[in-house]
Amino acid sequence: MNRILLLLEHPVNRKLLAEVLQTRYAVVSAAPTSAALNGEFDLGILDGPALAALWEAVQARKRRAEPLFLPFLLVTSRQDVGMATRHLWQTIDEVITTPIEQVELQARVASLLHTRCMSQEIHRVALQESLHAVVILDASGAIQFWNRAAERLFGWSEAEMLGRPLSVVETDPPAQWESLLNETIAGGASIQREVRLATKTRRHFIAEVSCTPLRLQGTGAPITHGILTARDATERRLAWEAQRRRRLELETLDRLTAALQQARTPREAMRAILDEALAVLEIPAGAIWLWQRETNDLRLAAATDWLQAFTDVSVKPGEGVVGQTFAQGETLVVRELTPAAFERSAVVGRVPAKWGSVCVPIRTSENVVGVFLTACPLAQRLQPDRMTILEATARVAGMALERLRLIDLFKGDHSPPSAPAASAT
Question: What is the pLDDT of residues 228-266, one digit of tens each?
Fold first, then answer.
C-alpha cells in the first residue's frame, strides 16, 4: 500500500485530509518539521505555510530519492498560490486549490502515485534487467542488491547473497573487493579495473568491474554505499593478449632477422639470437645447446649469466632437462632448477637456488638439432606471451642453422651437422 505523508500547518485540515485518504492509502500525519521528511513515504502533501518553512528540506529530500521520483502535492487557496510561486515548481509537482473536491483530490493523488510507481519500475528494470551484473554494497561491504545478471555471472542466487560480504566471490589476488570499495568511498569517484574471479562452480574468468560511490542522503552527503557493475571480459582480454603476443612476436622476429644478417657461423648466429631474445624477454640467463654429430652430445653454442659456467659440460640425448627436451622434441618447463636437472656432478655449485627454467627444442626442416634454455628467478613468473617469444626464437634459430647448412652445401661442404634419427619428430 502506498504511504502518504501529510505535513499541514493546520491540525484540523490534516485530520480531515487523512480521513479522506486513509480508505485507500497508509497515511502518516505530522506537524511540518524537517525531521518528519526523513521517513519513508511515496507522496508528501503540504499546505502554504509548510512549504514556506520547509521548501529547502523538501528539495533536499527529493534529491536524496533520486533517481526515483518522489512527488509532493501542495494544498492551498487560490489567492495564496502566487505567494508560493518563488519555491513552487522547484519543489512541488502538483497543486490543488481549496475548497477541495474529493474526486479531484483522489485523481491528483492517484496520478502522482502512478508516476512514482512508473519511476520505481523503470529503476527496478534498469538494474534488474541489466545485461551487466549489478551489486549494491553498503560501506561495510555487505550486499544490499544482487540482480539476475549477477546470479548468471557469479553463480549465487539473490537469496544466497543478500546481507553477505562480496568476499564470498573469490578474487586473485584476494581482497580485491575490499580494496575497490574502500578506494571508491575514500576517493569519492568511480574506479574501474580488471579482476580475476572464481564463480560458485570454481570457473575462473576475467571480469571488467567498476565501482561508483552512492550518496543516498543527497549531493555533498557522506558516501554510504557503492554500486558495482561487472561483466565477463575474458574473450576481450584473450583477444587483446593474442594481438599483443603477435605484435611482440613480429617485433622479435624483426630484431632477430637484423641481428642474423652478419652471422657467418652457427656460433655467431646463436649468440646473436640469444642476446636479442633475452633482451626482449627481459630474462637474465639463457643458453643454446647444439647437438654434435661426432660425439653424439649437446654442447653450449652461446650462454649468458651463470649458464656460461657450463661451457665444459656436455649433455647426452635424454640426459637432464636439456637432453630430455632434445630427445622428446617438446618444450619442458622446470619449476625449480637443481644440479640434478643436469645429471652431472660437475655442475654442483653452478646452479643458483630458486631459479626456474624453460627449455624449447630447436628444429630444422628435418630434425631437432638443439635446445634453447632460459632461466629466471622464481619471483619472475614467465607470462604466456613470453612463452610465445621463446618458441618463435627457437624457430628462428632452426631456420638460421638451416640457412648456414645450405650455404655450406652450396660451397661444396657435404658434411653439415644433422641430428640422429632417434630425435626426429
Answer: 999 999 888 888 877 877 777 777 777 777 777 777 788
Looking at the fold, whether 387 and 332 belong to one and the same domain comes out as: yes
Neighbours of 215 (CB within 10 A): 16
Place of cell 512549504: 51
**pLDDT-wise least confident of 80-84, 188-192, 303-307:** 80-84
Q: Helix or strand or coil: residue 39?
A: coil
Strands 191-198, 72-77: pairing is: unpaired
Last residue of a domain, one of 197, 232, 267: 232
The answer to whether the peptide bond before residue 222 is cis (omega within 30 degrees of 0) is: no
Same domain (yes/no): 310, 271: yes
Is 30 inside a domain boundary?
yes
Q: How far is CA 300 from CA 47, 265, 337, 358, 373, in A?
A: 95, 14, 18, 16, 11
Peptide bond into 165 cis (omega under 30): no
- Pair 2, 113: CB distance under 8 Å: yes
First to last CA, the chain: 78
User: Which residues span the domain enclosing 154?
Assistant: 133-232
Q: What is the CATH number of the domain that holds 64?
A: 3.40.50.2300
Residue 209 and residue 123 share a domain = no
pTM score > 0.85 for this model?
Answer: no
Distance CA 303, CA 313 (A): 12
Our CA angle for 339, 342, 347, nearest 5°, is 55
| Contact assessment for residue 372 and residue 360, using Cβ atoms and an 8 Å cutoff | yes
Give me the phi and psi of 149, to 5 degrees please: -65, -35
Q: For position 386, what pLDDT does the model report?
A: 76
Q: How far apart are CA 423 and CA 419, in angstroms?
A: 7
Q: Is residue 237 part of a domain?
A: no
Same domain, 190 and 99: no
Grid coordinates representing 158 are 539473490
Q: Which of 232, 267, 287 is the last residue of a domain?
A: 232
Q: How many domains does the chain have?
A: 3
Beta-carbon contacts of residue 397 (< 8 Å; ≥ 6 apart): 269, 270, 273, 288, 362, 370, 372
